[in-house]
Amino acid sequence: MxxxxxxxxxxxxxxxxxxxxxxVRFTGCNLRxxxxxxxxxxxxxxDMEPSDIASAISSFRCGKVxxxxxxxxxxPQLNTLLQLLxxxxxxIETNGTIDLDIIKKGExxxxxxxxxxxxxxxxxxxxxxxxxxxxxxxEIKFVIGNKSDYDWARxxxxxxxxxxxxxxxxxxxxxxxxxxxxxxxRDRLDVRFQIQLHKxxxxxxxxxx
Length: 209
Prior knowledge:
By secondary structure, the protein is of the alpha/beta class.
């Protein structure tokens, strides 16, 4: 498996926002989103065995783990790593373009499916059937760069949503938070409004946080 970085920080997004979490960022992605903030993970990385990754995670003595990238589902030994992390609470971040059925989750594992909006340039790559494979404990995230993205996300929810928590997150610095919040309140959407906590604490360009 090719690993870009492993570090302990506070989770900045989703249901676990604010909790200390070990992040494992894998190298490589099958997309090139316009608003990607981890381009350094496209190529940079070190080859590691799943057992060595699990040992590195355990050394932090933290029960929460976030598997991210890049796109972790392109890592051929991901299921082996997840078996080693059976006792951890693990979130698996994926861009929604790869069949979720290839992953064997443990009871304490969940998906965070980051659905790519039109401003990403990759919205046409969505594997729509993945919505049927999500559970209540999984999350669906829309990163939104403008009002058109917001309206598109609403239409996707209307057409495809089955279950799982939904999060709307503005691209950092793109839409004023009060304006974004007003859209959700006006439309009475049953979604979580999320800002990227780690970028507020450490700044938008910091790595390893």
